[in-house]
Automatic annotation (TrEMBL):
Origin superkingdom: Eukaryota
A UniProt-annotated Pfam family: DAG_kinase_N
Annotated signal peptide: none
InterPro entries associated with the record: DAG_kinase_typeI_N, DGK_typeI_N_sf, EF-hand-dom_pair, EF_hand_dom
Name of the molecule in the record: EF-hand domain-containing protein
Source organism of this protein record: Xenotaenia resolanae
Annotated catalysed reactions: a 1,2-diacyl-sn-glycerol + ATP = a 1,2-diacyl-sn-glycero-3-phosphate + ADP + H(+)
Domain EF-hand: 117-140
SUPFAM superfamilies, per the entry: EF-hand
């Protein structure tokens, strides 16, 4: 029988431990990987505006975690987790189109889990959400 976490798109403690293990083995940083998904990057075709498709999300994970054989079912579960989190935490007007997930939200999540100084993580996260680069987080 499936647990509430599994049926509602949540992550179990086992999932989180597995994800941490992959992250410990990787030498890449989120800030380096997301560049490849922006216009002009080699994976830009997997983004629509600011959103990643499921294929783009799985490619992001494989690239960031430096694994070719990332389990497809685990990738799908993580994708659904981000979809659910965005649906639950965002106004309808700011939810991703066509079932995607926001690249900045995925990037923020993984950057917080990375090793590093809190100030560095806060600066990176701030820049992710400062869309116009004016040094302010505007309501728009």
């Amino acid at each position: 029988m499936a647990s509430a976490d599994e049926t509602e798109g949540g992550l179990t403690s086992v999932d989180f431990i597995q994800l941490q293990h992959y992250m410990e083995e990787s030498s890449l940083r989120v800030r380096d990987v997301i560049k490849e998904f922006h216009p002009g990057g080699r994976y830009a075709k997997y983004t629509t505006g600011e959103c990643l498709s499921v294929e783009g999300f799985c490619l992001f994970l494989k690239t960031y975690l430096e694994v070719e054989d990332f389990p497809p079912n685990f990738c799908q579960k993580l994708f659904r987790y981000f979809q659910q989190a965005e649906k639950d935490g965002s106004p309808k007007s700011s939810t991703p189109k066509e079932g995607g997930v926001f690249l900045r939200d995925v990037s923020c999540y993984f950057s917080v889990l990375e090793e590093g100084q809190p100030r560095e993580k806060l600066e990176f996260t701030f820049k992710l959400y400062d869309k116009d680069g004016n040094g302010l987080l505007d309501s728009s």
